[in-house]
Amino acid sequence: MKRWVLGLVAVSALSLAQEPPPFTTIPSGAYRIAGAVVSLTTGEPLARTRVVVQDTKARQSVQTVMTGDDGHFEFQVPAGKFSLQAARKGFIASAFDQHETFSTAIVTGAGFDTEHLKFKLAPSGIISGRVLDENGEPVRGAIVAVSREFRNSGMPHIQVIRNQVTDDLGQYEITPLQAGTYFLSVHAEPWYAVHPFAAAPPEQTYHVDRALDVAYPTTYYSDTTEPEEATPIPLRGGDHASVDFHLAPEQAIHLVYRYDPATRSMNPPALEQPGLDGPESAEQGIQSNSSPGVLEITGLAAGRYLVHAREGNQYQSATEMDLSGEAQELQQPDAQEAGSINVTLQVTGWTKLPPKMQFALRNGRGRISNFTELDEKGEAKINGVAHGKYEVLIGSNTTRFAVTRVVQNGSAVEGHGLELGSGSATDVVITAVPGTATLEGQVVRKGKGFAGAMVVLVPEDPENHHEMFRRDQSDFDGTFSLPNVIPGKYTILAIEDGWDLDWAKPAVIASYGTKGKQITVNKSDVLKDAVEVQPK
After folding, report:
1. Residue 459 pLDDT > 50, yes or no?
2. Angle of CA points 465, 456, 149, to nearest 5°
3. Which residue has the higher pLDDT, 170 or 422?
4. 519-523 long-range contacts, CB within 8 A, separation 24+
5. CATH of domain 338-435
6. What are the start and end residues of each CATH 2.60.40.1120 domain in the chain?
7. Per-residue model confidence as pLDDT tens digits over 361-417
8. Which residue has the higher pLDDT, 13 or 264?
9. pLDDT digits 0-9 by tens, 33-59
10. What are residue 17's phi and psi, to 5 degrees?
11. Alpha-carbon distance 71 to 291, whole Å?
12. DSSP code for 202
């Protein structure tokens, strides 16, 4: 089942934003949910752990207990399906057998042994260390960025999850951290750095020793400035990894940007640098409008950058520049270098669109490059689109959609991608279908319900319809529910302990498809035949 987060840690925050819902107590019944909370790493029982049971059909109905010295918990409940959650200081709060946002719900009733549960909590991980300068002295105020590798989209990707600032001794500590693979990087500024402006008028210039006109480049563990050479940090529950950084200064850039103040406003360019998972926004540096029509950016370390100039509120195509410590100029590109798109959306079977429908373009690196909200007619215009190939995405806050047809300048395109030339103006008509069906079923092994399996609904064309994938985790009785399913042809399969698979890659999931079930979804339905679980 999809995890519904109860306020073990969030209720107090929620109450600040809105009136908290009225929680009620699950009435006592003839069945018991009981067991022990133990450490995932040592197996030792965990005393003083808060355990909450929650009715999945009435989310405000809960019971709460605190475990004793033996880690034991016990609830008396009626027949039904219940989520189970636990939280303890020093451990990662979790639902029962949780993977990503999925978990296994407990089913009570005749034939289910729910009195001998073992609820495993993973200890919090810690990464700590020091940031030192070129002389081995501590760097205070350095920003340590923590990135983690995720697979919840079916393909591995790396995302920044938090930042930590070093103290006066250059020390940092990051906790709690879940088990996983992490990458660390550091942004800092030499305390002694001075940056004169190369484009300033003579009366405003002053001489500075070049040894002071320096900056620290973004540095990855272990002490590399190239993201592809960053060392991964595998962290298991309860691990304490020690990670130190040693920074080395490089000459600071001086990027001069000239514009006509009579016809253009001052729109500073945006800088990106290579990152762990594609280009990332660079630090802003120091900007000076030292004379009319001249903007200078400095305070950033020399290196490779993507520089995006702006026309109005829209960023133009990126210019790749190898910026050194010498003054370099970026010319204002012609506005025609970037293209525009006129979008019209049609949703099959709907005469009126829901509010706040959204249109986005995803580039070849899997990142959202352009995004806008459609009006009530399903129309919008996007300016400043760089030339290249894109995937079209449609969504809303209430419904999931799949793109079934894309017409570009009057001609249908294969799949649902777009290819834009430099400076092109493109008319795009998109046809989409909403995901309104719910598919339910059961995972079994040798005829008996199997809990904890990863259930994957694979579209007939997984290469071009990633948005049609659906997943769930089978509950205590093996049942599952897949909401917001888009009508179409699918293969449904269940994989034991398959949570680290790149399940959205056609080549990976195809090896399991031969043992899956081919189905057609037209409306909400319950599968008549159970799905046999497969080993990973």
Report:
1. yes
2. 80
3. 170
4. 519/489, 519/490, 519/491, 519/492, 520/488, 520/489, 520/490, 521/437, 521/439, 521/485, 521/486, 521/487, 521/488, 521/489, 521/490, 522/437, 522/487, 523/437, 523/487
5. 2.60.40.10
6. 11-121, 124-334
7. 887 766 677 888 999 999 999 877 877 888 888 888 888 888 888 999 999 887 778
8. 264
9. 999 999 999 999 999 999 999 999 998
10. -95, -30
11. 70
12. G
The two three-digit tokens of residue 489, written as one number = 């042809």
Sheet holding 314-323, edge to edge: 278-281, 270-275, 303-311, 314-323
Three-state secondary structure of 291-336: ECCEEEEEEEECEEEEEEEEECCEEEEEEEEEECCCEEEECCCCHH
Contact 222, 186 (CB under 8 A): no
| Cα separation, 403 vs 360, whole angstroms | 12
Top-level class of domain 437-534: mainly beta
C-alpha 124/C-alpha 413 separation (Å) is 49
Note whether 485 and 138 are within 8 A (CB): no
Cα 480 from Cα 104, distance rounded (Å): 9
Half-sphere exposure of 239 (CA within 13 A, CB side): 15
Name the token pair of 385. 């689109």
11-121: which CATH architecture?
A: Sandwich (2.60)
Q: Which of 274, 291, 170, 166 is nearest to 227 (CA)?
A: 274
The two tokens of residue 307 are: 């520089």
Report the Cα–Cα distance between both ends of the chain, in Å, rounded. 20
The two beta strands, 525-526 and 479-485, are unpaired
Distance CA 404, CA 409 (A): 17
Delimiting residues of CATH 2.60.40.10 domain(s) in the chain: 338-435, 437-534
Report residue 229 as tokens: 């050479």
Question: By CB neighbour count within 10 A (0-12 exposed, 13-18 middle, 19+ buried), where does 378 fall?
Answer: buried
Q: Which residues of 437-459 are buried (b: 16+ CB within 10 A; e: fewer)?
A: bbbebbbbbeeebbbbbbbbbbb
Amino acid at 172: Y
Amino acid at 437: A
1.10.8.470, 1.10.3380.30, 2.60.40.1120, 2.170.150.40: which CATH number matches 124-334? 2.60.40.1120
Which residue reads 């990464």 in tokens?
Answer: 127
Distance CA 2, CA 14 (A): 20
- Quick check: helix, strand or coil at residue 68? coil
